[in-house]
Amino acid sequence: MNSLWKKIILHTVLKSKEPKDYSAYALAKAYRLFKISARRHVKDVVLITMGIFSASFGFKGFLLTNHFIDGGATGISLLLSAITKVPLYLLIIGVNIPFVLLGYVVMGRVFAIKTALAIAGLSLCLALVTFPNVTNDNLLVAVFGGFFLGAGIGFAVRGGAVIDGTEVLAIYLSRKLGTTIGDFIIVINVLIFSTAAYFLGIEVALYSMITYLAASKTLDFIVEGIEEYIGVTIVSSYHNEIRQMIIHKMGRGVTVYSGKRGHGKRGESKEVDIIYTVVTRLELNKLNTEIEKIESNAFVVMHSVKDTKGGMIKKRPLNH
């Protein structure tokens, strides 16, 4: 390891301002942590940059020329731009400043810095980069404007930032008042679209709702991933056979918990191994069939999983 890398690691990972004698193991471990952190930062920068350009294309290529809006902070910015004729790139910064400050309180300093840089980048892109006006067809504008805007917000979220700060406010209020995040987002968007209907007309407000729905579904798709994962919990007397089936026939990993099962009026309990595994939505039918072959009365609980990391789930399953 040369002196430059050693100096960088001393300052960034080991937090040392003075050169000290560290063991080879300590330096190697610090170098590994530095590589992981650097790789993560590069990935975040790429994702946020993609988000900025995608959202800018949605704005300037579709929404601005037709005065359609979206929900949240971007919707407020678009609405104010349509009413006041103030450039959108200025409103994007002005509207989101309170959300950035709130994000510092709710989510922390790193999140606030990333969000501030992402919003500044979006503003600069809107001000300096020229995009063609793709179409004037209202339905295409609503759908594809929402698609590119939602993709932009989704990429930014994957990069650890937001370019629409409404959810930060919703998280803060939900913690203070004890209600769900979705409740606040719905209330905020009802107010935005009601205002749009008053100032821009009912038809524009209705098309804007299509834009919001397209953006929301695209955002979910980008953030949650392409594949839908299902977490499966299995309680069965034949737990060992089911575990072997999942490993060898399905080619998936399992986690086994020790627990107790009880039923009947007296609630008698019995020791049992509880199996947990995660499969893709397309593998769920095969898993249920194989479980039924082993025990038709096995107790199976299934629930959606947003995304996974590590383990066997993203590897190619065994072919049988």
Word description of this protein:
With 320 residues, the protein is an alpha+beta fold. It has two domains: 183 residues, no CATH class; 77 residues, Alpha-Beta Plaits, CATH 3.30.70.120. Helices cover 63% and strands 11% of the residues. The chain has eleven helices and four strands, in the order H-H-H-H-H-H-H-H-H-E-H-E-E-H-E. A four-stranded antiparallel beta sheet has the order 2-3-1-4, covered by helices on one side. Strand 2 and strand 3 form a beta hairpin. Helix 2 packs across helix 5, helix 4 runs parallel beside helix 7 and helix 7 packs across helix 8. The radius of gyration is 25 Å and the shape is globular. The mean pLDDT is 83.
Strand content: 5-15%
Order of helices and strands: HHHHHHHHHEHEEHE
Structural category is alpha+beta
Detail the poorly predicted runs: none
Total separate domains: 2
Distance between the termini: 47 Å
Shape verdict? globular
List how many beta strands DSSP finds: 4
Number of helices: 11
* Spatial arrangement of strands, main beta sheet: 2-3-1-4
Helix content: 55-70%
Write the layout of secondary structure elements.
Layout: H1 3-12, H2 24-66, H3 72-84, H4 88-106, H5 109-128, H6 138-158, H7 166-177, H8 181-200, H9 202-224, E1 229-235, H10 239-248, E2 255-263, E3 268-280, H11 284-294, E4 299-305
Antiparallel strand pairs: 1-3, 1-4, 2-3
Helix pairs in contact: 1-2, 2-5, 2-6, 3-4, 3-8, 4-5, 4-7, 6-9, 7-8, 8-9, 10-11
